[in-house]
Amino acid sequence: MDFKESKPIYLQIVDRICNEIVTGKYPENERIPSVREYAAIVEVNANTVVRSYDFLQSGDVIFNRRGIGYFVSEGAIEKITAMRRESFMNEQLAEFFDEIDMLRIPIETIVELYKKRNKQ
Question: Most exposed residue of 71, 80, 83, 99, measured as fewest CB within 10 angstroms of its CB?
Fold first, then answer.
């Protein structure tokens, strides 16, 4: 996996696992790869994956059955969507608004482009 310098690796792995859950690769109540298996998949140290799994577990996206492994929690897709929506609204959207203000792009232009894009 290619990692970006601007974001911690464990959070990039969190994003990847969330994408895999949302797209159905790992359905709710189904097992996900073990820490070692996932570390091999993304070619990182197992401790990094442990940190990613801990983060997801604290958000109730996955849960651990001792001796069996990690599983996708019931309602994980809704939790992921809510987390991402909040992040988008609080971080990315603010940066977007700052950029269009700086470039003096009228909001009407943005709305028009958005409407065009949704028609396609």
Answer: 99
In a domain, 70, yes or no: yes
Number of domains in the chain: 2
> pLDDT digit string (tens) for 72-117?
999 999 999 999 999 899 989 989 999 999 999 999 999 999 999 9
Q: What are phi and psi of 11, to 5 degrees?
A: -75, -30
Dist CA 34 CA 28 (whole Å) = 16
Q: Is 46 exposed, middle or buried (0-12, 13-18, 19+ CB in 10 A)?
A: middle
Residue 81 CA to residue 44 CA, distance in Å, equals: 26
Contact 11, 56 (CB under 8 A): no
Dihedral of CA 91/6/42/38: which sign?
Answer: negative
State the residue range of the domain holding 65.
9-76
Please give the model's pTM, rounded to 2 decimal places: 0.81
